[in-house]
Design brief:
With about 575 residues, the protein is α/β, with parallel strands linked by helices. Strand 3 (about 65), helix 3 (about 75-85) and strand 4 (about 90-95) form a beta-alpha-beta unit.
């Protein structure tokens, strides 16, 4: 028997990323399907379509299995429609969240021969056996297909794999996934929460890979010289503090020099975990915390359980006592949430001064509980990806559109390393952080066509003009200058009018010699004292391009000195 060849394929959102799902299927198939041959191939959704089609056409032989998500489904359908025309004999399998909940639709439209719903390894393996031996697929749980009568059939669901260690690792001897700069990783599957807006609410609890499996995988990942960031895709990473502490402790000991991203339930952090995190170096860990709303009634209405007081207490500890990068999320358009509720959540989150602040409009995903309860909440949402809410009984389309624009302004001014010392000084000039961001959003739109493609110098200039319009205090203008000069190392030059002066080169060289400053650095003098991390000065040293730095200095006496 000639072995059937299956190409496992995915369009990824970025060139640097790799789709872990197809590599799991590849590893599983190579172990349990000796009657088949497997190959993996990935492209970015931004790849020119005609070239992408040609590359796939020349790689595929008998079967193609494609991983489908919100961000790639349009390009995927474009691909399979073209493949149907030029390779009508090709067997096409679709799988992934985006097709799992309306599998028959994709069969009825002729896009594919089979759809895999849910956790895919066992289903895929059984299907490849059936294809290889021309067997009836009616017994394969989790599969949708077209039977001999031309009818579209959906079989019963496949049970989840309980013993996760039985799944072969995709990280052992796999250069395709290990040669990237970024990789996804899972230490658990499933979720214990039942949030209406998340598809993981349909899972029956969480399952865990063993400590031994984690260590073996991580040894392979950390042996790669190219991987710099590992994003754990666990829905709630910190279930069980002993397991959490083991993984974090292992990475602190063996995995420094890289960045690890986790989605956590902040209220579940154990005191021993918090103490462990005191010792984590800057840049090592990144926590994404889905606050979503600060109101218990709203969380309960959306199926989410949370001890909010404990969440806030643990969050405050992380922000005050650790170097963990904190990313906070809010969702707008939740069931029973009003604009007033959202404003309170926004102001609370802004005041926390976390490293990253993201607003997301509710996505009414296929299969989600939010979609089931849509009529109750009078939801109107996009019928195609990304399924954003357009309006509901509490939010008009105009109000939701306003929050989306605010989210874009946060990306420009809050979620960059730049501007942070400035925006937290501007916000108190308004009645609330929400009013500040709303006013800045309106002003930004009057100055720039859109929120994408905004270069930093333009963003600085727009913010300067905004400060002029609101007649901000002189100290805020000076902070903007300080912020710009630090990030651009421009020798004292700014794209807006500054109210400070750069000391002349002979004086600088004299000071630089005394304090061992860089030759290409400079010193800026302001007409008032500014507060830099608790140190007050009117004179600041900026290092050159090879060694960016910002330090307060004292030049009032002949004996020059650093203040910070």
């Amino acid at each position: 028997m000639t072995k059937k060849h299956c190409l496992l394929f995915s369009f990824n959102s970025k060139f640097t990323q790799s789709n872990i799902a197809i590599h799991y299927l590849d590893a599983f198939g190579k172990k349990y399907n000796p009657e088949c041959q497997f190959d993996t191939f990935e492209l970015s959704i931004n790849w020119p379509f005609q070239d992408a089609l040609a590359k796939v056409f020349h790689r595929v032989k008998d079967v193609i299995a494609i991983s489908c998500y919100i961000w790639n489904i349009d390009r995927t359908i474009e691909l399979v429609k073209a493949l149907r025309l030029i390779r009508p004999d090709l067997i096409i399998i679709l799988g992934g969240y985006e097709v799992s909940f309306d599998s028959l639709t994709y069969l009825e439209k002729g896009y594919c021969n089979y759809v895999i719903s849910g956790e895919g390894e066992i289903i895929f393996s059984n299907l490849m056996k059936a294809i290889s031996y021309d067997a009836d697929p009616s017994h394969i749980a989790g599969l949708s297909y077209i039977n001999n009568k031309g009818e579209c059939v959906k079989n019963q669901a496949q049970d989840a794999i309980e013993q996760l260690d039985t799944i072969p690792s995709p990280f052992q001897g796999n250069p395709e996934i290990l040669d990237k700069s970024f990789t996804y990783y899972e230490s658990t599957r499933g979720c214990v929460y039942k949030c209406h807006f998340c598809l993981s609410a349909l899972d029956k609890g969480s399952r865990f890979f063993s400590h031994e499996r984690f260590v073996k995988d991580m040894e392979s990942i950390l042996a790669s010289p190219t991987i710099k960031q590992i994003k754990f895709v666990d829905r709630t990473f910190n279930l069980g503090y002993k397991r959490t502490n083991f993984i974090l402790g292992y990475l602190m000991e063996h995995g420094q020099g890289r960045n690890y991203h986790f989605e956590i339930a902040c209220e579940l952090l154990h005191k021993t975990t918090l103490e462990l995190l005191r010792e984590a170096p800057a840049g090592l860990f990144q926590f994404e915390i889905g606050v979503q709303s600060i109101h218990d009634s709203i969380l309960k209405a959306n199926g989410r359980s949370c001890d909010f007081q404990k969440l806030e207490r643990n969050l405050d500890f992380l922000l005050a006592n650790t170097k963990v990068h904190i990313h906070l999320d809010l969702v707008v358009g939740l069931s029973e949430q009003t604009p007033e509720h959202f404003e309170e959540s926004f102001n609370w989150t802004f005041h926390k001064k976390a490293d990253h602040f993201q607003i997301e409009t509710l996505k009414v995903l296929k299969g989600s509980l939010s979609k089931r309860f849509g009529d109750r909440d009078e939801m109107v949402h996009q019928l195609d990806p990304p399924y954003n809410l357009l309006q509901n009984k509490h939010f008009s389309f105009t109000e939701l559109e306003k929050t989306q624009r605010m989210a874009s302004v946060l990306e420009v001014y809050y979620n960059r390393d730049h501007f942070r010392m400035v925006i937290f000084e501007i916000a108190p000039l308004f009645t609330s952080p929400l009013e500040f961001v709303q006013e800045l959003t309106v002003f930004f739109q009057s100055k720039h066509m859109g929120f994408t493609g905004v270069n930093l110098k333009t963003a600085y200039t727009i913010l300067y003009d905004f400060l002029v319009q609101i007649e901000a205090p002189k100290s805020v203008f000076n902070l903007l200058t300080l912020d710009y000069l630090y990030h651009f190392q421009s020798g004292g030059q700014t794209p807006f009018e500054k109210r400070s002066s750069t000391i002349n080169r002979p004086k600088y060289q004299q000071v630089a010699s005394s304090l061992k400053m860089q030759k290409k650095g400079f010193i800026e003098e302001f007409d008032e004292e500014l507060d830099l991390d608790g140190v007050k000065s009117s004179t600041f040293y900026f290092g050159g391009r090879n060694e960016p730095s910002l330090r307060a200095v004292d030049l009032t006496n002949d004996e020059y000195k650093y203040l910070s």
